[in-house]
Design brief:
The protein is 34% helix and 21% strand. Strands 3-2-1-4-5-7-6 form a seven-stranded mixed sheet, with helices on both faces.
Length: 258
């Protein structure tokens, strides 16, 4: 007979789920609510159309797996994730951050969310991803344009739409779609919340939550309303969704396939 899951674990699982798949009330306890809400909606639109075999590069706890209609879904993560605690689904494969241990032409699509900014050699990384894709395979990726430093010291870059198109062209892809997420006034509000969160942070978790609830949550709700206004949407956004297709000619790669 299995023992019941403690309430605190259920609460923690709910909190972690809301971080990546936020419901309406998640603005009360997640400071990244506005950008994560847009990111989840965009992935929900695209993930179900990617084909039966998907590789999730930098998968973490695989928060978006249930959005895919995949027969085969493989999560790949950097080896240092083995040392991280927490509950949730774990990666299937670990790698050293340089060589993807995947055979050539194994997948219909690759999902890579908020990872490229942590890669010091982005062209090599994108070439290796292309190597794992089948002919005309698809890369679905999200990358930040305006975001505070995070996971330091492994935070190396921010990407404009022109920078992403250049990288994709150089590494064996044809750009299909580019979508700005959390744009305009909602994006400005999200950036303000990130800044205030850092300013208000204390050494006491309970106090941090109260400060977030009373100071940041109202701002996030305001940002939700302001985001409906068509102001500044073409000039500022927090993160981007990129959809690209592998070119016919396979790019050169140093991947050590298993």
């Amino acid at each position: 007979m299995t023992s019941p899951i403690p309430f605190r674990h259920l609460l923690k699982n709910f909190y972690q789920k809301q971080a990546f798949r936020p419901g309406f009330w998640a603005f009360l306890f997640h400071s990244s609510y506005l950008v994560r809400r847009d990111l989840h909606r965009a992935l929900q639109k695209h993930l179900g159309t990617l084909g039966p075999c998907i590789l999730d590069v930098g998968c973490g706890s695989r928060p978006y797996e249930s959005l895919a209609r995949a027969r085969k879904y493989i999560g790949l993560e950097h080896y240092h994730a083995r040392k991280q605690g927490g509950r949730g689904k774990r990666p299937d494969v670990y790698f050293d951050g340089k060589n993807l241990p995947i055979k050539a032409g194994s997948f219909d699509a690759v999902l890579c969310t908020e990872v490229l900014e942590h890669v010091f050699e982005p062209q090599d990384f994108l070439r290796q991803i292309a190597y794992t894709l089948k002919e005309k395979g698809v890369l679905l990726m999200t990358v930040p344009l305006a975001m505070p430093e995070h996971e330091v010291p492994y935070d190396y870059g921010r990407y404009t739409s022109y920078g992403m198109r250049y990288l994709l062209q150089k590494t064996g892809y044809v750009s299909l779609e580019y979508q700005a997420l959390c744009s305009g006034l909602a994006g400005h509000t999200q950036l303000l919340v990130f800044s205030l969160e850092e300013t208000l942070r204390t050494g006491h978790p309970a106090l941090n939550y109260l400060l977030r609830l009373f100071f940041l949550s109202p701002l996030l709700f305001l940002g939700l309303l302001l985001g409906k206004l068509p102001v500044g949407k073409k000039s500022f956004w927090i993160t981007s969704l990129v959809l690209a297709q592998k070119k016919k000619n396979k790019p050169y790669s140093l991947v050590k396939a298993c």
